[in-house]
Amino acid sequence: MRHGCMILIRLVFRTNKNYVMEDSMVTVSIIIPIYRVEKYIERCLDSVRAQTYENYEVILVDDCGGDNSIQLAESYISKHNLICWKIVSHDKNRGLSAARNTGICVACGQYVYFLDSDDTITENCIELLVNHLAKDVDFVMASYTNIPVQAVFPNFGKGIYTQEELVYKYCKQELPWNAVNRLIRRDFLLKNSLFFYVGILSEDLLWNFHILAYVNKAVLVDTITYHYYVNQNSIMNSCNYNYKYAEDLLFISQRMYELVQNHFNRPQIHYLHMVKYDIIPRAVLWHHYPFKYKWHMLSNLFQDRFYVYYRFLPIKKMMVLLLPAPLLILCYFVSFWGQEYGSVVFRKLRLGRM
């Protein structure tokens, strides 16, 4: 369930003794969940301390990882006498979503910025985003790159975008749905109860869908300000049979389906179709699940279909999606196998002729 401020009452504050900041002075709250990142935490904090923009606070949320991460953070704060930094501790591990929700509720800034504790930001990151704030804009988002693979979004865009324009850019997969690297109005989050759903993986995908349902305008800045370090042992990059990942994706699809039934918004439904019929099937097929499990998950995924929207789709896509579930699933398997192994097959065929 989504957790709001009312349930976040058991917080233990461990704040630097020199922390004396007026709420009205704080413009940006940088929220950093801390969980088992002792190898990377100082690298992250160095990038925050190097910011050229000065009017910010840092909220480190201790999510009880059991390693030395939070002790390293405390030592870092003390060593550099960082009076605008504070640590908020959970009583037990609650996950990334709950940590971010905690940060939203205790933040003093007009805007919040989410940063993962194993990543870094450029020294002009916050200043650049603040300089692009405009009237009636709910958030400002800049581009990022993956490390070690230098992957970026070539059609990221720049300038002010309306809700419909933003959604269609997401439908074309020109923007990341990650919660990080965007400066977002805190009152916008609180007014619309845009908290993260607790207890699921890929929580950013569902959160971003909620955001787009309420956003008025946003600014895109086609400049890389965030370095996303790819963890080869993460769920997204693991070959292990993490069934919760697939099950949570199915849950996200069902939750989105419920939302668009209550609010028939053509751009949002178009986005739902992209997630339901592109992102989630590819994610399930790409992972090394047993064939029977993949078939079962896709069967459940295609059980509910928003037929009323099909008339807006291209005729070829509409005809495919109208197929009975078994035939539709078979099409996905054939397409995936063709993409994954087609080049290998053709290469072997050419070698066979020599």
Structure description:
This protein is 44% helix and 17% strand. It is of the alpha/beta class and 354 residues long. The chain folds into two domains: 12-231, Spore Coat Polysaccharide Biosynthesis Protein SpsA, Chain A (Alpha-Beta Complex), CATH 3.90.550.10; 236-353, no CATH class. Helix 5 runs parallel beside helix 9, helix 7 packs parallel to helix 8 and helix 8 runs antiparallel to helix 9 (266-286). The longest helix is centred in the C-terminal third of the chain and has 29 residues, at 325-353. The radius of gyration is 22 Å and the shape is globular. It starts with 11 loop residues before the first strand and ends with a helix.
Shape: globular
Could you describe the largest sheet, including whether it forms a barrel? 10 strands, mixed
- The assigned structural class equals alpha/beta
- CATH homologous superfamily assignment of the largest domain: Spore Coat Polysaccharide Biosynthesis Protein SpsA, Chain A
- For the record, the count of structural domains works out to 2
Strand-residue proportion: 15-25%
The level of helicity is 40-55%
Walk me through the topology:
Elements: E1 12-15, E2 28-34, H1 41-49, E3 56-62, H2 69-80, E4 85-89, H3 96-106, E5 111-114, E6 120-121, H4 125-131, E7 139-147, E8 159-162, H5 163-171, E9 182-185, H6 186-191, H7 203-214, E10 217-229, H8 243-262, H9 266-286, H10 291-301, H11 315-321, H12 325-353
Parallel strand pairs: 2-3, 2-5, 3-4, 7-10
Antiparallel strand pairs: 1-4, 5-9, 6-10, 7-9, 8-10
